[in-house]
Each structure stands twice: as structure tokens, then as C-alpha cells.
Amino acid sequence: METHEAERLAAELAGSPEALRTFLSGLPGVDQVGAEQRAATLATRSIKTTAKQWALDLAVRMVDLTTLEGADTPGKVRALCAKAMRPDPADPGCPPVAAVCVYPTLVPTAVAQLRGSGVHVASVATAFPSGQAPLAVKLDDVRAAVAAGADEVDMVIDRGAFLAGRYEEVFRQIVAVKEACGDAHLKVILETGELVTYDNVRRASWLAMLAGGDFIKTSTGKVAPAATLPVTLVMLEAVRDFRDRTGRQVGVKPAGGIRTAKDAIRYLVLINETVGEDWLDPRWFRFGASSLLNDLLMQRAKMATGRYAGPDYFTLD
Amino acid sequence: MPAKQKRADRTPDAPVRLAVRKTYKLFVGGKFPRSESGRSYPVQGADGGFLANAALASRKDVRDAVQAARKAFGGWSGATAYNRGQILYRIAEMLEGRRAQFADEVAAGTGEPTAAALSTVDAAIDRWVWYAGWADKYAQVLGNANPVAGPYFNLSSPEPTGVVGIVAPAEPLLALVSVVAPAIVTGNTVVVLASERHPLPAITLAEVLATSDLPGGVVNLLTGSAAETAPWLAGHADVNALDLAGVADAGQAAELERLAAENLKRVVRPAADDWRAEPGLGRLAAFVETKTVWHPRGV
């Protein structure tokens, strides 16, 4: 297919740091005011009744149910997996979430729980969340996660290198991690909260896609601001332009700070209006979230019963 | 200036001042938002004249108010009884300062003479002080040290129920105070649907609460049609108790009670209350849960 075009472009740019820098700097700048205005305008769309029901179910299917705390235990991960497979035990019609996202040491627990359920196991790796470790250590981190059974890997880019302008180094690291992933899906976390400008977000998005990332993800969730609508808009435009140019489709995952069903639906509207229906699928769009799921379930319950639901009736984690 | 002089000569009376026609807003989470629906309705005096516009709350305002009440519950229920009492006394002081304004609003709404309205307001302030005094005393009356056959201290203490929904009675101020104060003094947070006919004293009470030390969200006050919003409050799964004091229609009360039963809310049924009479601890006791602990006693 046209993916050859992506490989050709990557090979051409990988050869020389100058070519890569020239290409990334040559990307058109982002109109900051325009992007924020566009995102704010789309956020005012009102989604009701059957469309809302559909959107809520889709959003549940897109959730990467995440727990990334130092205090995570196998017990907590098992509970999270049970919730991932059956988010609302009271409603058999409620779809499972897309994946469970944990630290590498807890991958075996999650794999054992989720076997045969169709829910993916994602693991953060590469010295998450800072990414400040030698490459060899990061690669070992990835290999360990994949060996333990993770079929999706969330890596962080080296923001220090990126901001210092060493694009080539970041590119090589992503390529190496992709190789270490084998068949596992690679999500590249840009940590947009540390990239400062939308121009940098666009450059980092292209860099990650050229280097072979299957998904680009906004944030670790450990840095504020995390995912915002305008940042996601810029990233969606990047994956759209990348597919137009190379034929390869890349997914997008906003993570961190998305807590309400209303927020989630705003993202769905943004997808529909920016990249179209092709991305309205858990294969191509994910929400990295934990508390979002409960709000989605409460909204589903409200739609089903006609009464407002309370948080007491849903599990905490 | 001859021209001005001339005009002044033409109108010897003092110039008529244009009144400020107020449109009041809701009180949710310590702030005064407009109704999410953007609606308002004219409030009429006893003579049918226009008094002001009040916000006409919708189901989403109920939702927001319950959310605000739930958010405030942890802090308010965790405050010491002494602290809650102090804050309630402070509110009584603020009420006293607005005595004349309350009397005007009550008189305009009910058409009763100012003296009668003043007596209603005074009774309301006294009622508030009465309940404020109970803040650090009700536990001694409603709680108990129980005698048990074993080496234990067995203690029962009243704990706040949670978020209480209140359909306020139609009568202004005194009745409102008599249902709000007993619910919050024990540490509950409330969502009040104010009297549709007399919302102005209720909103002024909200202005008092907003400028006292009461944390935002402890009292949330919605004006408008209780017939429209009460079912949403009664059916809300995050509301723990319901006071139907202001529901006049028996059929509607039964329907609200049925909705409240969905998540086993405590319900206080409407009764023919004489708001002037000393209330007793009935309402206060209605919105607490008894917690009993067994504590091993040293041999």
C-alpha cells in the first residue's frame, strides 16, 4: 500500500539531522488563536438523545482505563480489570473498555485477568513519566513489558532532547523502541504540557509518526496542563495530514484531565469535524482516563432510567 | 442658566426616580448563577403588582445544585459542632441587620401590615438562633451511652445523613428558616426549592448566607416551579433525604415519595405545621443517622 510512502519519507529524513530539522521546521505554523477558537466553537455543540447514547457507548469503548500510581497493587489492578471487562455490572448492555493501562510490573496481573476478554493490556514504558534514562534502560523496560504480555506500549519521548532541538536523537529513540515492541502497538506520549507551543506539538506529532508510532498521545497525566481540546485538534490535524501524504493512518489518544462525559463528547465532536468518521473507532482514538469512566456510566444510567445517578452506585477504581 | 431654571419651575415636585427592576438569580455552590435554562418569571405582590423577576430553575439547575451540595458535604459535616454553631449565630446576626428589608419583602408578598411582617421576620431570626444553639447539644439528646451486657462502652451518636432535598413551604421566611436550619445544623447540606409565590425573602436569605461564613454549597437555593423541579430532586440518586414540607397536593407528595423510594431516601411527609409553635427536635432528628460503636473496656 501507500505505507511505502511513509517508509520512503522516513528513510529520507532519518539519514541526516539537517533534513529532519528542515522538514519539521518547514511544517506550517499553527494559528494559536484560530485553533483555540475552533476548539471552543466545536465544544458548544449539543449532542442529545440517541446521538448522545451512541456517543456515550463509543466513549466507553474508547477508554484506556488507567492506574499509574506508586501505590498500585495487584489487587487494585485485578479490580480495575474486572471493571474494564464489565464497567457496569447492573447493565449487561454496557460495552467493555478498550484497554487497561498499568506499569510494566503489573502487566502479568492484568494479562492473567483479561485473557480472552478482548480488552487490551497497555503498559507505560521507557522510564515513564520523565523519559530521562539511558536508551538501553528504556529498551529493556519496553522488552520487559512486551515479554510480560502487554500488547500496547505507551512510551514517552525525551522532551529534553526535543526541546534542545536534537530531533534526530528523539527520532532514533522512537525507532528503536518501535523495534523493541515487536508486534505490540506503540503509543508515543508527547507530553504536550512541556512542549510549550502548538508548533512544537505539530512537529513532535510528525516526528513520532515518521518514526513509526501507531498512536500519538498527548500526556502522561503527571504534568498540568494535560490533554486540552486545542492540543488534540492540532494532533488530529497532524494525523489527517500524515495520512493524506503517506497513506498510513495513526491514532490519537488524549490523556489526563478528561473527567466528564461532556468533555469526552466534545472530543468526539472534534474528531468528527477534524478527521472524520474514520477515527471514530477505538482502533484509532482512545481516552487515557480513570475517573471519566464513572461519569460515562452515570450518564448512561441517567439516559436509561430518566433519573440522575449518584457516584455511590459505581465502584471507585 | 435660564433654560434649566424654567424646567425646574415647571416641575415643582421632586423628580420621579425610576425603580431598579431586579432580576434575581439562583444560589448554587456559594455563587449566584442564572438558571441554566435562561428562564425567569415575574414575582407578583399580594395586590397583583410587579415586584421583581426571579430565576425559573430547570432540572439541570437541580443537578448542579446537588453536585455543589455533595461537594460541600465533606467539609461541613466534618466541621466541629462548635464551629457550625458559630457560623449559624453569625448568620442570625446578618439576618438581624436585614430585618427591615425582610419585613418589606414579606409584607409586599403577603399583603399583611408591616407590623405583622416584622413579627414574622423576628420569629424567623429567633428560630434561627434557637437552632444555632442546638449545634453542640443535639448529640447529647439524640445520642446515648447504652448499657450492654459485656465489657464494652456502647455509644450511639447522630451523624448527618448527607444531601437533603427540601421543598420549602409556601409561607415566606419563617417557614423557610424552620426547614433549612434544622437540616444544616447537624452537618447536612441542602438543596432548597423555594416558595414559588414568595421567592424574594428566600433570595435575600441566600444573600445573607453568601456573605456570612457558611461554606459555599452547604445551602443551595433554587427559585421557580417546584412542581417542575421536585421530581428531579426526588429521583436523584445522590440525594439522601427529602423534606416535602411545601408539597400541598397529596397526589404529588405520594409520587415524590415513590421516586424517593428508588434509593431509599429518608422522607419527611408534608404535615399541617404551625410554624409559629416551638418546633421541637423532630426535623433535626429526621436528618441524622444513628451510628453505634462498641468500644472494648479495659479489664
Could you walk me through the main structural features you see in this protein, from its secondary elements to its overall organization?
The complex is a heterodimer of chains A (317) and B (299). Chain A has 13 helices and eight strands. In chain A, 50% of the residues lie in helices and 10% in strands. Chain A has a single domain (3-306), classed as Aldolase class I (TIM Barrel, Alpha-Beta Barrel), CATH 3.20.20. Chain A has helices at 3-14, 17-25, 32-42, 49-62, 74-85, 107-114, 135-147, 159-163, 167-181, 198-210, 229-246, 261-274, 291-305, and strands at 63-66, 99-102, 120-125, 152-156, 185-189, 215-217, 251-253, 287-289. In chain A, strand 2, helix 6 (107-114) and strand 3 form a beta-alpha-beta unit. The mean pLDDT of chain A is 95. With 317 residues, chain A is α/β, with parallel strands linked by helices. Chain B has one domain: 3-Layer(aba) Sandwich (Aldehyde Dehydrogenase, Chain A, domain 1). Chain B contains eleven helices and ten strands. In chain B, the strands form three sheets. Chain B has a five-stranded parallel sheet, sandwiched between helices. A three-stranded antiparallel sheet of chain B has the order 3-4-10. In chain B, strands 1-2 form a two-stranded antiparallel sheet. In chain B, helix 2 crosses helix 9 (226-235), helix 3 runs antiparallel to helix 5 and helix 9 (226-235) runs parallel beside helix 10 (250-261). Chain B is globular, with a radius of gyration of 22 Å. Chain B starts with a helix and ends with a strand. The model of chain B is unreliable at 1-6 (pLDDT under 50). The A-B interface holds A 301, 306-313 and B 62-63, 66, 70, 232, 235-239, 259, 262-263. Chain B: This is Aldehyde dehydrogenase. Chain B: Residues 45-268 form the Aldehyde dehydrogenase domain. Chain B: Keywords: Oxidoreductase.
